[in-house]
Structure formats: structure tokens, C-alpha cells
Amino acid sequence: MRHLRRYFGYRLGQVRRVFLLVQKVAAIQICLGIIFAVALVNWVGNYGWFVLLLGLLLFRCKFRWLALSLLITFLWLTCIYFPGMKAAEDKLIGQHFTTGAMVVEVMQQGTYEQQVILKTEMPSGLSLGQLPAYPKLAAGDYVYGEFTIDKLTENLEYLRSEGINLILSANNIGLLEIMNIELAIYKLKAELIKRIQVNLPEGQGALLVGLLAGGRAASLSKDLKSNLKLSGLSHIASISGYNVSIIVSALIAFAGLISRRWLVIGLVPLLILFLLFIGVYNLPAARAMVMGGLALVGIFCGRSVHWSWALIFALSLLVLLNPLAINSVSLWLSLLAFIGVCSFTQVWSYTIPNFIALVRETLAATFSVSVVSMPLMIQIFGSVSLVGLISNLFALPLIPPIMALGILAAGLDLVNDQIGNACFWLVDGMLRVVVFIADTGAKFEFLQISDMRIAWICWIVLILVMLIIDYRKYINARLG
Q: Are residues 122 and 46 in the same domain?
């Protein structure tokens, strides 16, 4: 009991130190105030009296900047942002106008209709385009026509979290030859996707497109989608914070080879271009990109940036630019996965024997992500896959080389077909292994827990096991 009291005292001491640090640093309080205000407006409602009382309580507890940030952001959202957005939508809905629009991404192409993401100047921002099937569009095209503005239907409301608030429909469209940097990036994206789809079989090609260009661009078959879900590998079929983190880590690895100034000057523009390439509406990737940018700034200044403060800043920036982003399921899954990896990987790795040290970090990270994200997975999807713990162990180490060789193969194929084909042959082999892992994991469908009560019990047991492991680690460290 004495050791147990010391353990809880040690952990409570850590919480107290964090509490005091937040109390001293104004920037952290401002970011937290923005996040809390956006969350309250989206999830609780416009209860001004509650926010006022909360602000006064925080001010009383010496969190003055947090209180001010909370109150100012809440007033801006409830009095300016959301009323203004609703008034603008009500004014635009039903109107007809002739304009041009940039095709950012193709979502779906059918026999009679195609759905694309359009970027227009009026209305400004992103919209969902429901356009005729011909001419066939690709990312980077510039269309011109008479559009009708409609509001999003209920089954498309999830698009608001990505900054897409309206539907633009047209009976006839034409293509215009216009070129700028942004269109060139989208055209390059479309050409690389085309090269991948031509050189790889359907399943492997769709997986690689998802890894490099985003989930919507990946036209996965129903069977492959089902197998990825049953094996707990759905997350690898679309670019995510994990994928972007791989790229950012690879770029930061050059920190010891060139000067810090030239590293930041060279890599920050590359990160911006890559974000345009994958789409600024990809919230998990945007979050990882912002955090990667902060890491580069820290390198430039000669200081390290703690992952928790970088995460708070990135989230506050995303929800400030688009307050509805806080409702994004993909963003929260990405956040929970990142928190799990950073917070609990060392706890799980402590129990893994030394003879499998080569896969210790991967296995520990997989357990951490699964445990932390399990409640949200249960709540949203109604089930959780236990076989995913094993599937991710074998699949995740293959993702970095697949992404590196995939980008290299698609790029070289633009220059020389033979060299590109040789690289695609290597990528195809590794992708086949991933597909095999997904197919094998899907056979253990009985490990898919769909009963909510059993799933919650499994999560509670895992949390208790993790606490026991952490307690043992603390005791062994004290006893030497």
C-alpha cells in the first residue's frame, strides 16, 4: 500500500506540474480557450450563462487568458460567425450564376453524374459539385458553366467539417485552359494517380493512391474495403496523420546534414505544397502538417517543441479556421491515435520481451493506438476488431517503404517508363503483402466485437492492465 500511495502521489504531482505550467503560459491558455469555446458551441449549444459562469470561475482560478479567450471566441462564434454563415447560405441558396470553378478532387464518377470538390471565388471556398457525367473531369481541370446553389442534404452534412457547405449543380459545363500554381499541383496529382492506376493491379493501385493522395481518390473494391475493416487496417487506405508524420520525420532527418536556416527555408514550402497536393480539407493530414511545421520552427530556433503543446496549437488553429472541424470523426481518431502513441508506447513496450525488440516499438504503438481510440471506435462504428492488433503489427512497418517507393515510382514513370515499371514492381510486391494481411485478418471475423457491453468491458480491462504495467515500471525504477 505504501508503494501504491507513492505511485498515485507521483502521478498527481505530474498533473499538478502541468496545471501550474498552463497557469503560467498565456499562449497555451489562449489555444485551450479557443478549443473549449468551439466545443461548447458545437456540442452543448448557445448557453451564454453557462459560458459566463465558466469564464468567471477560470478567471478566479488565475486562468485569466483562458477565460478571456473562451469568452471572446464564444461571442464571435454565436454573434458573428454562425449567424453570418447562415445568412449568407440563405441568401445564396436557389440562385443561379455563371462562373468558373477549379476541380480540387473527383469524389465519384457515374454513368449520368459525377461528384467533384470545386473551389470557386463566388461563393468563395469549397463546394460539392454535382455535374453531368461528360466531359469526364480530373483534379486540376477548370470548368465553366451556369451553376445552381443548393444546401447540403442530411447525408452530406459531414462535409461541413471539411469546409464544404454548399452544393453547386449544373446541366452543362465546359472546360477552360487556365494555368496557375495551384492548378498545376492538382494536375500533377491527377497524373500521378493515373500512372499508379495504369501500372498496378486494381486493389494494390487503390491502396497506394489512398496512401499518397487521400481516401476519396482511392476507388477500393467492396471486398477490399470489407477485408480492411475486418482486419483493423481501414486507416491505411487513406492518407492520415500517421502517413504525414512519416514524411515530416523523413524531412526532419536532414536536420543534422544542413544548416537549420536552410532546412526550414527549404522544407516549409515543401510542406505547404504537399498539403495542397493532398487537400487542405484533409483534417488529420493538416493537423500533422501544422505540427511538423512547428517542429521545423523549433529546429530553426534551436529548441524542441513538446508534442502536447504542438497538438494543442494545431487543433486550436484548425477549429479557429473552421469551427465545424471539431465534429470530424477522422480528426478525433487521428488525435487519439497520436496521443496514444506519444503517451503509452513506453508503457506497453516495457512488458515486451527483449528477444522481439525489433518489433517492440511497432507492437507497443499498435496497442497504444488501439486502446486509446477504442471508445470512439465503439461509439461511432458499433464494433471493434481485436485482430487489428496483430494485423497492424505486420502491416505498419511496410507503410514507410511503400510510400517512399510509390512516390519514386510514379515520379520516375513520368520521365522513363522502364525505370518506373521496375520501381512499381517492387511496390506491387509489398502492397500484395498488405492485401494478404488484410485478407487473412478478415477470416477471423469472430474477433470482431459488435456487442457494445463486451467492447466497453474489454476497453476497461485494457486500461486496468496498462495502469498495472505502469505501476510495476514505477516500482522497479524506484527499487533500482
A: no
Q: Are 366 and 396 in contact (CB under 8 A)?
A: yes
Which residue intervals of 147-282 are DSSP H helices?
A: 181-199, 202-213, 222-230, 241-252, 260-278
390, amino acid identity: I
3-class secondary-structure state, position 448:
strand
Q: How high is the mean pLDDT of the chain?
A: 79
Write out pLDDT tens, residues 168-218.
Answer: 898 888 888 887 777 787 788 888 888 888 888 888 888 888 877 765 555
From 90, 115, 137, the end of a domain falls on: 90
Q: What is the pTM of this model?
A: 0.82
Q: Are both 268 and 362 inside the same structural domain?
A: yes
| Total tally of structural domains belonging to the chain | 3
116, part of any domain = yes
390: helix, coil or strand? helix
* Residues 142, 7 within the same domain: no
* Boundary (domain end) residue, out of 38, 71, 90: 90
Task: Report which of 96, 155, 150, 100 is spatially closest to residue 128, judged by C-alpha positions.
Answer: 150
Asked whether the beta carbons of 266 and 250 are under 8 A apart, the reply is no
- Residue-number span of the structural domain to which 474 is assigned: 189-479
Tell me, what's the pLDDT at 244? 62
